[in-house]
Amino acid sequence: MLSVRSLVKIYPGNVCALQGIDLDVPGGMFGLLGPNGAGKTTLMRIVAGLLEPTSGGVTLDGEDVVAHPEAVRARLGYLPQEFGFYPHLTGEEMLEHLLRLKGVEGPGGVKQLARELLERVNLSFASKRKVKSYSGGMRQRLGIAQAIAGDPRLVIVDEPTAGLDPEERLRFYRLLAELATNRIVLLSTHIVEDVSILCRRFALIRDGRLVAETTPSEARLSLAGAIFEGEVGEEELDRLRRTRRVTQAVLFEGTNRVRIYAPEEDPPEGFAPAEPTLEDAYFVLMQSVPAVSLVGAAGGRA
Amino acid sequence: MSLRRAWTIAKAEFSFNAKRPLFWVWLLILLLCAWGMSTGSLQIGTGDSSVGGKKAWLTSEFSQSFQFAAVGLLFYGFFVSIAAGMSILRDGETRVAELLHATPLTPAEYVWGKTFGLFLSFLVVTAAHVGANAFFNHVAVTGTDAEFLGPFALGNYLLPPLLFGAPCILFLAGFALATGTLGRRPILIYFLPVAAVLLCGFFVWTWKPHWLPLAWDRVLMAFDPAGIRWLQRTYLDVDRGVDFYNREPVALDALFVWSRLGFVALGLCAIGFTQRRLAVVLRGAHPVRRGASRFLAPERSPLAPTSLAALGMRRGATSFPAQVASVARVELCELVRSPGLYLFGPLILIQTVGTAFTRTGAFDTPVLWTSGLLAQGSFNTLTLLLCLLILFYTVESLERERMAGLASIFAATPLRSGAILVGKTIANAVLCAALLLATLLACGIVMLVQGEGRFALGPFALVWGLLLLPTFVLWSSFVACAWTFVKSRYTVYALALGVLLLTGWLQLTGKMNWVGNWNLWNAVTWSDLAPLEMDRSAYVLNRVFALSLAAFFLGLAVKGFERREPDAVGRATRRRPKLFLRSALRLAPLALVPVVSGVVLALEVRDGSGGGALRKEAHDYWSANLRTWADVRNPGLASAEVELELDPARHGLRSRGTFRLVNDEPESLARFAMTTGPHWEDVCWTLDGEPFEPVKKTLLHVFRLERALATGEALDLGFSFEGSFPPGISKNGPRASEFILEGGVVLTSFSPSFVPVVGFLEEMGVEQENRTEPRDYPPDFYVGKTPSAFGVEVPYPVRVTVCGPADYVYNSVGVKTSDTVADGVRTVRWESDHPVLFFNVVAGRWNEARREGTVIYHAPEHAANVPAMSEALAAARRWYGEWFSPFPWEELKLSEFPGYAGYAQGFPTNITFSENIGFLTSARGDADAPFMVTAHEAAHQWWGNRLVPGQGPGGDLLSEGTSHFSTILLFEAVKGLGPRIGFCENIENRYAENRQADSERPLTEIDGSRAGDETVTYDKAGWVFWMLLQHLGRERGLAGYRSFLEHYEGNPDHPVLQDFVAHLREFAPDADAYDAFTRQWFFEVVVPRYELRDAMKERLADGSWRVTANLRNAGTGTMAVEVAAARGVRFPEGEEQGVLAAEPGGDEDPYQDARATVVLGAGEERTIEIPCGFEPVELVVDPDALVLQLERKKARAEPRRSASM
Prior knowledge:
The structure holds 2 protein chains of 2 kinds.
Chain A: E1 2-11, E2 15-25, E3 28-33, H1 40-47, E4 55-60, E5 63-64, H2 69-73, E6 76-79, H3 91-102, E7 104-105, H4 110-120, H5 136-148, E8 154-158, H6 166-179, E9 184-189, H7 192-198, E10 201-206, E11 209-214, H8 216-221, E12 227-232, H9 234-243, E13 245-252, E14 255-261, E15 272-273, H10 278-288
Parallel strand pairs in A: 3-9, 3-10, 6-8, 8-9
Antiparallel strand pairs in A: 1-2, 1-4, 4-5, 10-11, 12-14, 12-15, 13-14
Helix pairs in contact in A: 3-4
Chain B: H1 3-19, H2 21-37, H3 61-93, H4 97-101, H5 107-138, H6 154-183, H7 186-204, H8 214-222, H9 228-236, H10 242-247, H11 254-282, E1 314-315, H12 320-337, H13 339-358, H14 371-377, H15 379-404, H16 407-411, H17 417-450, H18 458-486, H19 489-508, H20 536-560, H21 568-573, H22 577-607, H23 612-629, E2 636-647, E3 652-662, E4 669-675, E5 681-687, E6 690-692, E7 695-697, E8 700-709, E9 714-724, E10 739-741, E11 744-748, E12 757-758, E13 798-805, E14 809-812, E15 815-822, E16 825-831, E17 840-844, E18 847-851, E19 854-858, H24 866-883, E20 892-897, E21 904-907, E22 910-914, H25 915-919, H26 929-939, H27 960-975, H28 977-994, H29 1013-1032, H30 1034-1048, H31 1057-1064, H32 1071-1082, E23 1090-1099, E24 1105-1113, E25 1119-1127, E26 1152-1160, E27 1165-1172, E28 1178-1181, E29 1196-1197, E30 1200-1201
Parallel strand pairs in B: 2-13, 19-20, 20-22, 23-30
Antiparallel strand pairs in B: 2-3, 3-9, 4-8, 4-12, 5-6, 5-9, 7-8, 10-11, 11-17, 13-16, 14-17, 15-16, 18-19, 21-22, 23-24, 24-27, 25-26, 25-28, 28-29
């Protein structure tokens, strides 16, 4: 169980990144969803033992991560949002080095394990090439390979599918799903689809606060009968944005396909009831809770 | 090009620099430098150092130019290079570059904008530096005498930075910008300033052998980015007088102007090149190698994923050593790939080997290297270079993960922080070790090329292993610790460079001691005979201190190494003194050893021979006794008998003896004093066999007699004491003129090292603060009886018995009358077979080389020069005996002692030589140092021992000047004309380089108190005696010298130069001419300088040639001088010296010359005409080196063919 209690993080300059987060993650895949600057990365770095919180606590299976960050590192697989590698090592050499630093081995030794991990992430063809010649997606895959190495109790992945093509994204989903079977995987993303596909539960974070913690199906269910969809022109769209709660507006063949949230009032003319999606729930939840800062008037920050 | 956009870039660059710690630290260093310079630490060596004499102004344009040129490269070079080199690179690292170049900003605007911003920043710093200079010199005067300060002149402060600083800065900045932008490796940026400082400091500014052709000299001047060599060679090396330097502007010549413009052009070209290359790089154009695959292999289609569980991964705890090894391995791979290694490495090798081949020893001659001397000789260079390399590489190592973007992943692994630091440190250490090994190999090559001496690893292991490596460990840990806390590479550079500069400053100003000397700069002295014996405890304590401090820094670094970004806000609001105390307590054990070792070392320094306690004792001796005892007449020594027990292994001695003191003055003697040494313990005195307790006034023991000693009456003074010598350790590196070491012993009666000294020693306890002006003698001081310059008036018999370990040889003055060994103890007795004025004891484990009444005692491994020295010693005994007076003693010995002191001394029958003089000087080159030094010291058997000069000005010249003169004669007699000419030119050049034109006094007034007196005493005096011989004629002259020696030997009236001149007048064929000669050379200060102009040659109808030229004496003095029109090689190398080249009719051009003699006074010029039977190639003034002159090399010309031909 990963437990977060009253976690606060204030950066110098009175920038409040987290305003008291309480969270329990028993196991499996858990999503952290929120816009840029919500505080997701700050939360993940604190959980990974890379950032000291201002106050609050984090425990992993009863061990205090804040007081003893080194305790979590032995059981951690971490893939940050932005990262790089030693440019002059090959992919295989780089992975071997990280495996050794983590103390991870396979039956055939570190080298064999590195080759197999690279195969898992479809990097075997480039294993002998220097990392500096890798594309962005290849680097991402190498990062994933090192994150899943060993038997981490806790895997933290921050925006992991950035830079991956759709095929690779699916491949990665399978890997993560397998990993989540008997461990905690904390997935941070602003792509709602990732959460809807992978996560049993997720939390919505905005301006450093926990807006909601639920499951994808519960989130959709909460909007049952309240989502309506129709097609409107530009002027009508502007009017709807001012008068209604628009959850999505997608340009489709020259017109705007709009979905609105109308739990109590009648929908506009031409709008029909639609099946709620997780995106609808995301936008409804994001729009419904005003931002309140714990210290002065400041924006949140991720 | 848009100036607006370029200005935007420039503003941003300036604004960034204004906020960065690097610039503020740099500014602080420059301000401290300005303050330090204002105290007069660095000034032109001219003027009169005596009180009231003219001084060189710190505020003159020359002084400011010299200061700015000196500090420009050192204090500006690194900072400018780092700022400029990282300027564009930084934008790449912060990933701003792509955004910038996606705007309309062009590469030209970008690069020149950056350049302009940088130079604005440099301008502000320079302006502050110059302002501080002026402020400290004219407003906040810092304790400097007013006589060092001249009037304020704005030009004196503006021109030096413009002429000397700006081109250097532009050059370095341009190249650093190019290197950083195009190489994209920070380490390359550091290479240029390091290379520039080293090449200039160790070569361009200092390498000035007298044989260097003028053309090469000018090339070096042109290639000096700081302009120091030009300033030195054009204006400073030959002293032009303090008025000149104080008032005249620095007049530029074409060479300097072109050189400055050249460096500006190079800098600008480098910037232009950067701009062009950047434009290419931004377009993505890359050269394609022939044959290289142009297309990457396509990605394979994805395989069906298999379960992760099938991989069977397991995670276990990794041991600390394994973690360290992992980090070290990868770090080493990165370091090996770094191009900096392949630049620094050769630079280190070139510097080490280059220094070995260009460094000169005694008398400007090449050194004969041994392994130990090579290890010590390269110590300072290796320390500086490898410390710089460690600084740059350690910081880059610690920054590597952040720069690669791997920091988060790296920090999230279970790797221990200590493993990271230790692993990276080890990788850097391996790198340094590799460079050391390469340098070791280079040293082996040096020995191989030299062809003499055996290469041994032991000295390198001692000096580099035990002394050098701890420095690197300490420095690495300090840098790592600094980085851990400041987390900024530039701030670490600034701090570390500040530490290096501060260390250098303390060394330069003499404030350094063993405690602060963390890098042992200038503190390592090697002796093959006694390796690291002196100050051994200081070395040990210092290295323990260094290593323990390294452990402390490392512990601090590990403690402070934050894997997790700290919460600044929380920590500021939560005050936890307990936490802080707990952390401090945890580090306390690590701090214990450095604190204890540092304190112990400080106490040893305080109590040691260079420390405060003994200095105070010596100062008290001086202040308590000066007024009472300075001019008191001492009793004479009628005889001396000494029994000395030596324990070289413990530096110990036990001495007892009897001095027979006689009152040889007309008045009775009621009291007398004896000086003892600070190392004397358990001192006992007797008078005529009865115990006596003198009054002790610090180190002076005053004997008040119950009954005054009548004239001619004598008493026996007995003494005994024991102690160890030298006492304790030095202040900052072993330097002692006498010592007892396991490797060798040298003790003299000049100081109270093993026997007391009769009377008060005026120089004991004198330092800069209490130095008095020399005594002003009346013009007729020498009339009547003149006392001896050496304190003892009348020679006396001496008997010295020395005992010690049986494997030593013990030498003293006179004849060995017994030598027995019993129970492992050797007892040797020496008795003087002819009275002496002073005596010594020297001991060692030696081999002997005997020849014709002479013997040389030398270390077995120092035999290379012994044949030459033996030849000189035997020849000296023979020829000096023939020329001056037969050698009165039975045997003449020469003994070698460890090189902790670099001198040779001519005690009667027992000459002592430091191993670094004669034994370890190369016999290559014109000077033939082994022969030269031996001949000089052997001459002291006559001049100094038998002819004792009088006390007063000019006296010492009758000992040293005559010995140099004797050496000239011996060179000619043994080696031939060519080597004699070479020696004469050698000492003439030394005189020219070291003289002080403004304060030079006539020979008869030289008392050794002023800068420049030494070269007059030795070199000029030697020349004058040589010229006098030419003037008198050889036979007459030698007869005069013989007569002079005979007259004054044993004479209670000791001669000075006036007596010499008067005595030799009787031997002059023309008294008036003699008076004219001696007046200008002994009683005035003259030195000619000849210039040849308009040299032409014309073939006459009869086939002969006529050479004409205009000869001018641009110096002073009136001398007859020969001018030779010559062709051919006069003294070919390898042929018998003195023999003209080749036989007539041979393939080679035989030497011929035709001569004319002309007499020129000061400023006079004359057209000379020389008829020749051959076509001359060169005109040479004074071809046989018979007239002392300045700039002899310029007194040559190649005559052009006359237009009429």
